[in-house]
Amino acid sequence: MSLYDIPLTTLSGQPTTLPTGQALLLVNVASKCGLTPQYEGLERLQKTYGERGFTVLGFPCNQFMGQEPGSPEEIAQFCSATYGVSFPLLEKVEVNGEGQHPLFAALTAAPDAEGASGDVQWNFEKWLVSPAGEVVGRFRPRTDPEDPALVAAIEAQLPA
Questions:
Q1: Rounded Cα distance, 50 and 29, in Å
Q2: Per-residue buried b or exposed e for 112-145, using 16+ beta carbons within 10 Å of the residue's own CB
C-alpha cells in the first residue's frame, strides 16, 4: 500500500489523503510540549519552500504526557494565534501502540540516520517524504526544523 492510499482526516473533519507530487515533512505535533516552539521553524520551512512543491503536515498527538489535550478547534486556534501556522493540520492521531494510525505504522518502519526504526520517541518527530511517496528521511524530536541536515534533505527533494 502506498502512503497516498492511506485515508486521513483534516483537523476540521474532512476526508483527505497526502498530497501527491510534493516533498512532504510529516510531523507529530503537540501544543503543550517543551518542543512546541518548533512550530516557528516548521512555519518558516513552509513559507520558504511552499511555492517550490513542499509542505509540512502536522499530526497532533496526545500520547506523550497528555501534551495535546485540546479539541480540534482549540488546536487550530493555538497554532494560528501563537505561531501563525499556515500548513495543514490533520486530526489528532495515535502514533504508537494498539491505536496507531496506519500512516504512522508505515512511517515508524523507516529508520533514522543511525539506522533505528520503531516507535515514535516523542512529539515533533519528523519524516521527509519524496514527491514519489517514499520516506527518505526520519529526524528525531530534538532535531530543529531548520537543522542544516534537514534543510539539505528537503532541498534535495524539491520537485520545482
A1: 19
A2: beeeeeeebbbbbbbbbbbbeeebbbbbebebbb
CA pair distance 142, 113, nearest whole angstrom: 13
Q: What angle do CA 31, 50, 112 make, to 5 degrees?
A: 60
Is 79 designated active site?
no
pTM for this structure?
0.96
End-to-end CA, the chain:
26
Domains and CATH numbers, the chain: 3-151 (3.40.30.10)
* Strands 8-9, 15-16: pairing kind: antiparallel
Summarize pLDDT for 74-125 with one digit per residue, the tens: 999 999 999 999 999 999 999 999 999 999 999 999 999 999 999 999 999 9
Which of 33, 42, 57, 89 is the catalytic position? 33
